[in-house]
Amino acid sequence: MQQQADTLRAVRCAVYTRKSTEEGLEQEFNTLDAQRESAEAYIFSQQHEGWTCLPERYDDGGFTGGNMDRPALKRLLADIEAGRVDAVVVYKVDRLSGSLLNFAKMLETFDQHRVSSSP
User: Fold this and answer.
1) Other residues' Cβ atoms within 10 Å of the Cβ of residue 94
2) Model-level pTM?
3) 44 with 4: CB under 8 angstroms?
4) What's the confidence (pLDDT) of residue 9?
5) Strands 11-19 and 87-89: what pairing?
6) pLDDT (tens digit, 9 = 90+) per residue, 22-33?
7) Burial letters 21-60, b for 16+ CB under 10 A, else e
8) What SS3 state is found at 64?
């Protein structure tokens, strides 16, 4: 068992959250926080696999999922391309994209950099 723990590869997990409107974002605990909390709990449940949650927040509040013109998504993709992220965790896959074409483009980037995604 110790040998397995020694060879366990760390998996750096980024949490991406999005809400289409700004309604409710002013609340102390909003839907972006709830999405992040859920994703962090999932990452914690995978600690035995070496998963760790990155501290950076990739939150796009008030942005549609219909395009990729979102500040946090751009930072996330840049961090993936820079090799700083091993997995992306989202509350639901539609938080990443509401467009199948854009989602396919994101998955292509993920594949190129050996990044996985988990809803």
Assistant:
1) 14
2) 0.86
3) no
4) 86
5) parallel
6) 998 888 889 999
7) eeeeeeeeebbbeebbebbeebbeebeeeebebbeeebbb
8) coil
> What is the SS3 string spanning the chain?
CHHHHHHCCCEEEEEEEEECCCCCCCCCCCHHHHHHHHHHHHHHHCHHHCEEECCCCEEEECCCCCCCCCHHHHHHHHHHHCCCCCEEECCCHHHCCCCHHHHHHHHHHHHHCCCEEEC
Q: What is the pLDDT of residues 38-96, one digit of tens each?
A: 999 999 999 999 999 999 999 999 999 999 999 999 999 999 999 999 999 999 989 99
The answer to whether the CB of 51 falls within 8 A of the CB of 88 is no
Q: Which two tokens stand for residue 102?
A: 């854009």
The pLDDT tens digits of the residues spanning 95-117 come to 999 888 999 999 999 999 999 87
